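__Protein archive entry__

___
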Amino acid sequence: MSSLLDKAKEFVADKIAKIPKPEASLTDVSFKSLSRGSITLHSELSVSNPYSHRIPICEITYSLKSAGRVIASGTMPDPGWIAASEKTELELPVKVPYDFLVSLMRDVGRDWDIDYELEVGLTVDLPVVGNFTIPLSTKGELKLPTLKDMFM
């Protein structure tokens, strides 16, 4: 009896593994804006949908790290939908408080940049499968704006 149950589980797992899933990519992090208490960085997610109907995005989680420390992390609940049979572009804003940037100054070299790693989890609600998380990450150097950049 257990071998029949095992075969059924294997069959279902095999079929679910072959179900088309959305694919996503992540751009490098860049400077977006500046406010009194923080800077806002951003990255863009590009998500392609293999289905002929739109797919709800449950949430986007993110963690921005530099020098082995988490600079900013958070969750964007219910950010919208992935358009049917198309690519959908989503912006991921990341706010970094100034006090944390000051503590990172050790990593900032003469060229005024910070090495970073951005990890993102894009959770979508797929038919039959349910919630499915697409893990994404990007690494690079973020060029910080200088006073000259801000006032030009």
